[in-house]
Amino acid sequence: GAVVSQHPSWVICKSGTSVKIECRSLDFQATTMFWYRQFPKQSLMLMATSNEGSKATYEQGVEKDKFLINHASLTLSTLTVTSAHPEDSSFYICSARSSGTYEQYFGPGTRLTVT
Amino acid sequence: QQPVQSPQAVILREGEDAVINCSSSKALYSVHWYRQKHGEAPVFLMILLKGGEQKGHEKISASFNEKKQQSSLYLTASQLSYSGTYFCGTWDSGNTPLVFGKGTRLSVIA
């Protein structure tokens, strides 16, 4: 199966700082990437959808100025949490899909803790 | 719209069978099943496309009834390694993302 990596696996940052999370498709071209957030014992909630070279489409209730998404190439998307606060602490998971396929592959996730 | 999964949780003894259901209020093109272990990302199990597909791998199989907009995941002769939370993800078309149900927590005990 296709491989998606995320970096870092976990990060602890202080309130008010910004954190960047990278998502890479290692062996396929990801024309579309999705960013999800998951709180403990809850389902995956979609934050935004990004297509390579285009602006991301954010789900209702997700602040685009706070969660900056860049999908600069067919293998890399980044999520930057700006001015992080403790309530942003969560498990962030990216997912990628190649054009013309049905499968959506997930990265291993990044656990963000804001102190 | 978020698909509805049932049951919310189930406890099995090793060797027992289980069925997890997933239903949607809208027409679907495909249903995707994932298993997530605590602290890890979801792992892809299988995808079913419209056309009344059924498929399986070893002791885990699934069916998709597109007319009823329902899918079921069947786990037979469960093993301890089957424990985790199972999510169904539904996809209706185009470039839309998967929408996940709330998950079914499966615990297999010895």
Short summary of the structure?
The complex is a heterodimer of chains A (115) and B (110). By secondary structure, chain A is mainly beta.
Q: What is the structural class of chain A?
A: mainly beta
User: Secondary-structure element order of chain A, as H and E?
Assistant: EEEEEEEEEEE
C-alpha end-to-end distance of chain B = 37 Å
- Count of beta strands of chain B: 11
Largest sheet of chain A: 7 strands, mixed
Category by helix and strand content of chain B: mainly beta
Give the count of helical stretches of chain B.
Answer: 0
Detail the poorly predicted runs of chain A.
Answer: none
Sheet-strand content of chain A, in percent, reads: over 45%
Integer average pLDDT of chain A: 91
> Multimeric state of these chains?
heterodimer
Shape of chain B: globular
Helical content of chain B stands at under 10%
Radius of gyration of chain A: 13 Å
Q: What does the main sheet of chain B amount to?
A: 6 strands, mixed
Mean pLDDT of chain B: 90
Through-space gap between termini of chain A: 37 Å
**How would you spell out the order of helices and strands of chain B?**
EEEEEEEEEEE
Fraction in helix of chain A:
under 10%
